Amino acid sequence: MTDTATPLYNPQDLMRAQVRWRMLETVFWVSALLPFFVAETYLVLCTQIAIAALFALSLDLLVGYSGIVSLGHAVYFGIGAYTAGLLAKYGWGEPLSGLLLAGLVAMLFGYLISFIMVRITHFALIMVTIGLCLLFEEFGNQAHDITGGHDGLQGVRMWRLFGTFRWDLYGFTAYAYSLVVVFLCFLVIRRIINSPFGLSLRGMRENARRMPAIGAPSKQRLQIVYTISATFAGIAGGLLAQTTQFVALDALSFQRSAEVLVMLVLGGAGRLYGGIIGSIIFLVARDQLASNNPQYWYFWLGLLLILVIIFLPNGILGGIAHLLSRRKKS
Length: 330
Hints:
The protein is mainly alpha-helical. It has one domain (11-253). The protein contains 15 helices and no strands. The two termini are 38 Å apart.
């Protein structure tokens, strides 16, 4: 007779199983190369999708995994965009260092603001994030000499990537550059989510009051994930500035914050690929609807969102997972 019972599941084995790459993931990322061969005219749209996917992934760290509702995440996106854009405008157009600095500046702002965010919950948190977004947008508008205001930041000139690849009009370099950056950021986010730190975030999402009782300081960890999320949002904004060589004021707007949340809801919050799938569906639908029905495309986009919420309340990936689980049970 043994003194201790053998556990049914080994937590370390479960963690290793989550980290392990699956065939479907590999196929997904390999298929991201197909636009270079079969959809060359859509490379600019593909670049926008890649940037939006990274932005949605950064928000998912808050909304899906930590339970922090934010309607002002465009603050960090815009900060990253203006940082990279201003660097290039005033003489330093090297892409990689500019992108790194965009992430670092957004990280600094995220860290400072995180002290406020972790002390507020529920509706107050929503109102504060909206207020921050409106505040930064108005600051960007008033600082016309720096940001260009409603006219946007113009005169952004990027150097050739690695001194070799020029930023062509068709978007070959822009998409390749964005895809590599997004994939590398995805690997980091994937590792964070499937780490003990990521598990503690999900625990705080379910019950933030109980987590300190088992030795997980919730406020400190929420500050960390908020700062990390701001960093990736800043990188996404920097990518937008570098690939378009222009920064519009709407990079800081509430509308951009709302759109990325819609993408996340469409794909499925709290699911690693939810933000990516949602970005693809949202931007492709917007592109097609805007070209086929330019007057009422927002109506059809809103209808799509309503139908997804009614029939797939956990998003598209959540609905697929539910159907698969029911199929296994039957």
